[in-house]
Structure formats: structure tokens, C-alpha cells
Design a protein that fits this description.
The complex is a heterodimer of chains A (about 120) and B (about 110). Chain A is mainly beta and about 120 residues long. Chain A contains no helices and 11 strands. In chain A, the strands form 2 sheets. In chain A, strands 2, 4, 5, 6, 9, 10 and 11 form a 7-stranded mixed sheet that branches. The model of chain B has no long low-confidence stretch (mean pLDDT about 95). Helices cover about 0% and strands about 50% of the residues of chain B. In chain B, strands 1, 3, 4, 8, 9 and 10 form a 6-stranded mixed sheet that branches. Chain B has a 4-stranded antiparallel sheet with strand order 2-7-6-5, with no helix packed on it. The relative contact order of chain B is 0.35. In chain B, strand 3 and strand 4 form a beta hairpin. With about 110 residues, chain B is mainly beta. Classes of the chains: A mainly beta (about 120), B mainly beta (about 110). At the A-B interface, strand 5 and strand 10 of A face strand 4 and strand 9 of B.
């Protein structure tokens, strides 16, 4: 399978614990995105990378959230001191950079986080 | 922020064309309209996107009004496997701003 992969698929944690999610984009896709989706809502943008550079962070991304893409390939999203409001599906997407008509973002299956 | 509005839910008979509307009245001139769908517990699946011209691919057609303030996604021959939540979004500064989606029910 050459699509975007995410691990773990599900994570249950207790409030106050730290969690880390991993995303492996499609090979050679240099742009990588993180979105968050809560029940009944569409995905909301969190942050994105061009290779290893983090280009933008949403106001949704509090200081407890940090994302990295150290070698420009896979990315990690860490949430420190989790809160119940962090419970959501965390989605990763990737695409090739540049303008153009055929420039869609491809999404992974997501990591569902439940904070107890 | 770019905002899209969609009906909460729609029904369509199997074999008929499903027409899903989306309003994006605050869209800017260089922002693309994107459509994705999501089946329960899976990641969003890309369907189609466009700027101002109508677009067609193997999955669907996208009709964008001349003023670009609204668009319609057309699934020409809906099947039960098309049951999903369909999201319309606008690509602003390389991030897609999604609406709340339309839950499409295909009726046998």
C-alpha cells in the first residue's frame, strides 16, 4: 500500500498524559499536513510542512501541541498534558508541492484519540 | 475565514444522479473548491477539485457557478457504496477549509 499511513490507529489515554502520533506520507510528497476532526465536524487544519520546515500553525495548535518532520519524511504530532477536549480524530495528509490543477491532498486513515 | 455551507443530509435513490450543493460566497479568485467524502471511521477520500471551469473525472462532476459563489458535486449513477459524508472545502493558502459536510443516504 503506497498511501498515507498513520500509527497508532487508536489511542486511549488518561488526562495529563503525553501522546505521540506518527504519519508516513506518500513517498516523494514534500508537503505534509495535520488536521483534527471532532464528531460532526469537517477536518480542521492544524499545521503543515514543506520538507522539514514547518510553514504554518493554526491558532488551534496550543502550546501543548508540537509537530516535527525531522528528515522531511515522516512526521510526529505530540500532545503534552492531554485534556478531554483533545479527544478527536487526528488526520494526516500529503501532496506534492507546486501550483497546478492536479494537486490534491491525500489523507491517511487517522488516529482516534480518546482522553479519559 | 473561507466558509462553506452544505445541507446536513440528503437522500438519493440508487441509480439516480446525486447532486450535492455547496455555498462558498466568500471564496477568493485564486482559491480552488475541493470535494472529499468520508466513510465512517476512515480518512477523507479525494473526489475532485476545480477553480472556475467545470470538471469531470471517473468519480464525479463538479459544476462551479460563474460567480464562483457556489458549486454542485454530481455523482452520475449513485450506488449504495456512495453512502458517506461529503465535504466541500476551499483551499486557502494551501490549507483546505472544510464545511460540516452533507450526509448522503443512497436508498435501494
Amino acid at each position: 500500500d503506497t498511501g498515507v499511513s498513520q500509527n497508532p490507529r487508536h489511542k486511549i489515554t488518561k488526562r495529563g498524559q503525553n501522546v505521540t502520533f506518527r504519519c508516513d506520507p506518500i513517498s516523494e510528497h514534500n508537503r505534509l499536513y495535520w488536521y483534527r476532526q471532532t464528531l460532526g465536524q469537517g477536518p480542521e487544519f492544524l499545521t503543515y510542512f514543506q520538507n522539514e520546515a514547518q510553514l504554518e500553525k493554526s491558532r488551534l495548535l496550543s502550546d501543548r501541541f508540537s509537530a516535527e518532520r525531522p528528515k522531511g519524511s515522516f512526521s510526529t504530532l505530540e500532545i503534552q498534558r492531554t485534556e478531554q477536549g483533545d479527544s478527536a480524530m487526528y488526520l494526516c495528509a500529503s501532496r506534492t508541492s507546486g501550483e497546478g490543477k492536479y494537486n490534491e491532498q491525500f489523507f491517511g486513515p487517522g488516529t482516534r484519540l480518546t482522553v479519559l | 475565514d473561507a466558509k462553506t455551507t452544505q445541507p446536513t443530509s440528503m437522500d438519493c435513490a440508487e441509480g439516480r444522479a446525486a447532486n450535492l450543493p455547496c455555498n462558498h460566497s466568500t471564496i477568493s479568485g485564486n482559491e480552488y473548491v475541493y470535494w472529499y467524502r468520508q466513510i465512517h471511521s476512515q480518512g477523507p477520500q479525494y473526489i475532485i477539485h476545480g477553480l472556475k471551469n467545470n470538471e469531470t473525472n471517473e468519480m464525479a462532476s463538479l459544476i462551479i457557478t460563474e460567480d464562483r459563489k457556489s458549486s454542485t458535486l454530481i455523482l452520475p449513477h449513485a450506488t449504495l457504496r456512495d453512502t458517506a459524508v461529503y465535504y466541500c472545502g476551499v483551499n486557502r493558502d494551501d490549507k483546505i477549509i472544510f464545511g460540516k459536510g452533507t450526509r448522503l443516504h443512497i436508498l435501494p
